[in-house]
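Researcher: Structure for this, please.
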Amino acid sequence: MAYIMVDVESDGPIPGDYSMISFGAVLVDEALNTTFYGQLKPISDNYVPEALAVSGHTREETLQFDDPRKVMSAFAAWLGRNCKDRPVFISDNNGFDWMFICWYFHHFTGSNPFGHSSQNLGSLYKGMVKDTFKNFKHLRRTKHTHHPVDDAIGNAEALLTLKKEYGLKIKW
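Model: Predicted structure, token format:
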């Protein structure tokens, strides 16, 4: 299985009414050097200035980003080139990241290469340490910058640590 760590930046809380501004993905393997980065033009006039500010982009900049159909098609092609079978979506906050990626794939390409499910890195860690109050974020080596590729790589580093140091049985 090919695990793909994903991170999304948006200009609001939900897809459709608001827009996914950018996202990053990394193929989880020892090298962590197979990445994808997409910047997407807003699909709505709505945006929350505070949410957009997290991405580090202005509204004017985002209006120059790429057409979402083009970006999602390119991401699907990237997944096809880098995954031998159906990819497994995993993220720090899959409730948020998944809803944007899933919605955008279905809306702009007609299907989602990830299928109908996703995995949550934080929940996986909590289960491994048997404590719902614990957080995995200390396992990242790459600084959390809110650039989605950096953040996806940092989260993938944490997943690799769970395999190497915590004994997680995972295969890729």
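Researcher: Any notable elements?
Model: The CA atoms of residues 86 and 115 lie 8 Å apart. The domain at 2-166 is CATH 3.30.420.10 (Nucleotidyltransferase; domain 5).
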